[in-house]
Amino acid sequence: MSVVTRRHEELHETIEDELPDAILDFDEHHNAPAVVANPSRVDDVVRILKQNGYNHLSSVSAVEYDNRYESVYHLRRITDDREDFDEINVVAPADPDEPAVETVSDVFKGANWHEREAYDLMGIRYDNHPDMRRILLPETWKGHPLRDEYDVDQPQYTTLEAHANPIEERYEVENDAALDTMFLNIGPHHPATHGVLHLKTVLDGEVVVDVDPDIGYLHRCEEYLCERLDYKYQIMPYPDRWDYVSAGMLNEMAYARCIEDLAEIDVPEYAQVIRVLAQELSRIAAHMLAVGTFALDIYGELNVIFMYAFKDREIVQEMLEDLSGQRLMFNYLRLGGVAYDLPEPRDEWFGKIRGFLDDLPGKMDEYRSLLEGNELLRKRAEGTGILEPETAKEYGCTGPVLRGSGVGYDVREVDPYGYYDELDWDVVTYDGCDNLSRVLVRLGEVEESARLVEQCVDILESWDGDREIQSRVPRSITPPAETENYTAVEGAKGELGIHIVSDGTEKPHRFKIRSPCFSNLAVFSELAEGEYLADMIATLGSLDLVFGEVDR
Amino acid sequence: MVTFNDAVADLLGVDGFSPLVEFIVGIVGASIVVSVMLTIIGISAVWLKRKWNARLGDRIAVNRIGPAGLMVMPADALKLFSKEVVVPEDVDRIGYKLAPMLAAATVLAAFAFIPFGSGLQIADPETGLIFALAFASLSAVPVVMAGYSSKNKYSFLGFEREVAQAIAYEIPLVVSALAVVPLVAVFADTSAPLRMSNVVTAQQGPLLGVTGLPIPNWFIFAQPVAAVLFFVSILAEFSRNPFDLPEAGSELVAGYLTEYGGVNFVLLFLAEFAAIYFGGALFTALFLGGGSGPVLPAVVWFLGKTFVFYLVVQWFRATIPRVRIDQLLEFGWKYLLELTFLNLLLTAGILWVVL
Amino acid sequence: MMGVLRSLGVTAKHALKGDTFTVEYPDESPGISPRFRGTHKFSLSRCIWCRMCEEVCPNGTIDIKTNEKREGEEYNLNLGQCIYCRLCEEVCPVDAIILTQHFELNAGTKAELEYNMDDLMDVPWYKGMDPLEAREPDRGAWIGTDEEDDVWETAESTYAD
């Protein structure tokens, strides 16, 4: 009996002993066992699990069924020991007419935003939630769009009175002390918000007293969209559009992993190597952009680091274009493999990659002396935007943000998928917990990705077996009804998870995207409050947010 | 000595004695200098900046309109001047409209005291250096006007920063400039060491009596510390990177410029670039020997040096991160101020001992 | 301070080298990969009106109208809406629709990007590049055969009939 199975059995007992009335049932999801909890006691269940080491709340998704709503919590263990990795799901069924579930935001602070999203899109009310507002849609929106009963054609006009100034009362001057502060709307159109983020900021002089990120300006209902497309081909172009800054391959892998896991599709080894190659090239491109835009935030427009980073990203993008046919919206992965083999002539393409890899160390030296070595930058980025590892875990931060706080959680490492296990690479962590560490993690990861790419190229060059790029996949993919799966991959920004609930048809019943940027942004106010305005902007840059992924 | 005004009077064929004639001569002389400066600023703000920054960033930049893209200047000017002048509803109209004019006027007026060499200098009063520095300080006033009258929170933050920054770096600027004054008195052997032409004259000989060496007696060699401090203060005074906080693009959208467009923006923009040139001209006159140099006429040397100064400023802009407001003030008050005074005292002390 | 100077050195090195990476676009075209997915080109002579492309299109970009005898009448494709996923080309059993490398599109209104059959047939080949040479699309999964050549023959004979 494996460690994990034994642990699950012990857990069963513990939960049943301590909370006999909180547990309704035990269930089995495709990825992990599930605890079906009493909706009014779900916080206690999650708390017990947290005490037992499940210290990372990946996501909260809301699912609608004919006779109930479900709020599904995906919990994971983050430890240094890879053997110890484990996941468990908690399901809280809610009443179909008046869905209400007890909030877990007092157990995991990160649940706050996830539950707001579930409320916004599915209409499940979370009792005792500190801030039960809509998050993606405007506050005056009518209806909850992911519900079956939602009428897409319903007009959404709002009278001027109802929408006069939605923030007026919240920030109205209460006493003289409030007169010392200034309310400032940063965004949604601001040079440093990397897209459409609206920060409702209260400034005391130059110091940020309070900041409330307002998201949803780029909400395109990607989840709804995917629920209306078939598994086999139609969904695949869409992941490219979540994190649209060259991380497309990683997003596609997130979807591919989830559905291949659920539908039990094998991937030929040759295709797996190509997948890793494509993903890591994609990661290099995404991290280059992150580093460049961080520099842009600190240096101001006209700085050259941005240009150098863009230049290097461009080289990578050309390789990806040769491979997939597009620069950003790749649509290259297929269930059971990839769309096509490496571009011909192969040697030329390998030569391109090798040329890039050979130049990379010199370029990294340049980046390091421009960023890490520059005292003025260190003065700006060191010790600002402090994210303690405990806070980071509490909020479900992942990716370079978490690794910049010294926690070595990397999905590729703890929950390996594809070909990563066969290759030799390291997880990069820095424990400065500040803006600089997060940027250095990205620089380090570029080097690690380059290592992986090099190994893949070596393997592919000496490949003498069958070049099978796709396994035989059934003509239509129909996972059995009411099966659920949550899997994640290491996207450019962190744990990119997909939760699919199937209803036995060719299309998913529920398609939930666990976006790493969403959780990373949730922690932002903790980082920014008490900082200077300039550092808040730098912190925002160091989180590397892409609003296509935050808002979906 | 034939002054520039006399030369202009000669050119116009009048005798510069009656007040009216002096007035006309002054206007004509000023127009000549301003046109020259505007051309140079136009070239550098619109064309050279792009070219140079592109070169630093491995790009090509403007090259379509005219030879090497030079005609982008009239094209840009035409574009900017033909734009609608939008005055936002709630602004303080007087301040809002006055600020750009004042900005351009103060900084262009400051060029009157600059000894361009070859006799090109409009005014050469006995306290020329102080006048020039006073005009440098004045450049903060239109920024404050623009920021305050715009009624925009970003503009507001921008001008607040400008005030704090101008005050903090005013004193180091003046004091570091003063460090060359005793040297002027010694080398030019004059009782008017603040006169700008004397400052330049003092730097014409070879360095410090060491004959045979081709190093000229520029004060950057005699006063290297003062030169660095002055350079830093100039960057801060005219808000260039790493001290470009009042308009900090990524933080404050465009700072005090946020609400401006069209012609008003052009004037503020022009004033900003003119200020870099003015800073460069001051630096050249004080530390780089003014127009001293072989073969070419002095005025060419002078403008060449200011061009180099400009390129260096843009190079810094491309490479050095912006500091934070508290770091900026800390550096200004806690280090720069003390260093400049120390340098001044040391200079005086050394001269006292030597002489 | 040394770090700042070293940074200045790095940028100065770039400036002195003077290498440029960008290209002067209309004069000098950027490198387009053989696999690049641009504007669609439609071949009326090949199309068998099976409507597979319309079916697979994830966002309803392709709109086909046939008469009651299932003969094709209209083939409309809204380029403004297309996401260039290339699934239509991949699914087509006879290569009647192909994504060329042509990418230079402009239009004054959205309506101009709604291409009909004639517009689609007039789409130029980008520098004479035939996109099919660079691709080995995944036909097997769609039409149940792995042999590319068979597909071509099928197409030819279909047309011949």
UniProtKB/TrEMBL annotation, chain B:
GO cellular component terms given for this protein: membrane
GO biological process: aerobic respiration
Entry superkingdom: Archaea
GO molecular function per UniProt: NADH dehydrogenase activity
Transmembrane segments: 20-48, 102-123, 129-148, 169-188, 215-236, 265-289, 295-316, 336-354
UniProt keyword list: Membrane, Transmembrane, Transmembrane helix
InterPro entries recorded: NADH_UbQ_OxRdtase_su1/FPO
One Pfam family, short name: NADHdh
Membrane topology: Multi-pass membrane protein
Predominant location category: membrane
Compartment(s) where it occurs, according to its Swiss-Prot or TrEMBL record: Membrane
HAMAP family referenced in this protein's UniProt entry, alphabetically: NDH1_NuoH
PANTHER family: NADH DEHYDROGENASE SUBUNIT 1 (PTHR11432), NADH-UBIQUINONE OXIDOREDUCTASE CHAIN 1 (PTHR11432:SF3)
Annotated protein name in UniProt: NADH-quinone oxidoreductase subunit H
Organism of derivation: Halorutilus salinus
UniProtKB/TrEMBL annotation, chain C:
Signal peptide location: none
Gene Ontology biological process terms, A to Z: aerobic respiration
Pfam families (alphabetical): Fer4_7
Keyword Thylakoid: no
Molecular function GO labels: 4 iron, 4 sulfur cluster binding; metal ion binding; NADH dehydrogenase activity
Gene3D superfamilies in alphabetical order: 3.30.70.3270
InterPro entries with a match to the protein in the record: 4Fe4S_Fe-S-bd, 4Fe4S_Fe_S_CS, NADH_quinone_OxRdtase_chainI
Transmembrane segments: none
Keyword set, alphabetical order: 4Fe-4S, Iron, Iron-sulfur, Metal-binding, Repeat
Chain spans, region Disordered: 137-161
GO cellular component: membrane
Domain 4Fe-4S ferredoxin-type: 38-67, 73-102
Origin: domain of life: Archaea
Name of protein: NADH-quinone oxidoreductase subunit I
